[in-house]
Amino acid sequence: MAPWPPKGLVPAMLWGLSLFLNLPGPIWLQPSPPPQSSPPPQPHPCHTCRGLVDSFNKGLERTIRDNFGGGNTAWEEENLSKYKDSETRLVEVLEGVCSKSDFECHRLLELSEELVESWWFHKQQEAPDLFQWLCSDSLKLCCPAGTFGPSCLPCPGGTERPCGGYGQCEGEGTRGGSGHCDCQAGYGGEACGQCGLGYFEAERNASHLVCSACFGPCARCSGPEESNCLQCKKGWALHHLKCVDIDECGTEGANCGADQFCVNTEGSYECRDCAKACLGCMGAGPGRCKKCSPGYQQVGSKCLGESPADGTQAPGSASPSMNGEEAGIWADVDECETEVCPGENKQCENTEGGYRCICAEGYKQMEGICVKEQIPESAGFFSEMTEDELVVLQQMFFGIIICALATLAAKGDLVFTAIFIGAVAAMTGYWLSERSDRVLEGFIKGR
């Protein structure tokens, strides 16, 4: 309960002012509490113990040439003990083991100080490794290298080369962890003894494995070349040991919104917003609309803005012609100037008010991808002959032989020579009349 205000004007005003100053201020005038940062992760007790031992060993190195520092060092060492193994040196080393801000180190040193003293005075000769004696055998905070967990089980791959030397054994050297191998890039398997996804075995012997990267889109392969693929990554299809991009937009594998259109990309696709003139679209620009948005009308193949009531031209609307009619004079936008057909072996073809994606020359569409056309090998000239044509050809051949013999018998007589030439021409004309079309086509194609 507030004290009663004193009598008199000045004392009452001073009392009121002091009461006002003691009231809590508005929320917006009160200082905001400092942001609470998450506490740093606590190190594993084994790592703390290892740091303590490392610091202890550095202290021993630092004091290796020190002595008692008194006036008669020889007497002190003769009647007390050698400084090397003295309590004085132990105290000096322990004083500098932990930094002032290392709370975990101070806490562990407090818990293990008697053990350290026991090791210093009694166990140094039989257990020269302080880390092994203190952290592993006595405090049971650590495990030997290549082991993990409460029972110090061997890591996958063995204690000599845990995880095959190509990964990190989780919890190795501590009494925690799962022992799972975190493999390096390119390696996989329980003990990192296999090549991971997208890599193949370049070299392998009894102790080493070298994994090299496959060609870009290959998930599994037999070598580094494009034609060594055995399995493809998502968004690619295997075709003749090569991974070709799947056109999700052409195979209805895309999932775009009602006011978006699909653009194929390597191994995937993108959904892009339709032009504001469109209610649904099949591509970029006002020439690819399914329907026109309110305020736009169909002019040719495009959705264009209507002219305002004041007669001024709306942005994107048709320009009036010289005779005053709405002519709709527009310059076609070449959508192919931007990359709208990024699929492999595809090219863009501009159309009036839009574009389309087609396969490049020498390729054809197959299951949403462009594959190289297989050109059949050229056949021999006589391989397409029918049986009747072969008979005629045989008759011509025998006729030519007979005429040639007759000419020889006539000893070059002009009459028989003329008959011979006429017979050859007649039979050749008859045969060509049956095959003229195919013969010409064969010569044109170079057969």
Automatic annotation (TrEMBL):
It catalyses: Catalyzes the rearrangement of -S-S- bonds in proteins. Residues 153-193, 332-371 form the EGF-like domain. The chain crosses the membrane at residues 390-409, 414-432. It is a multi-pass membrane protein. It is an enzyme of class 5 (isomerase). One of its GO terms (cellular component) is membrane. This is protein disulfide-isomerase.
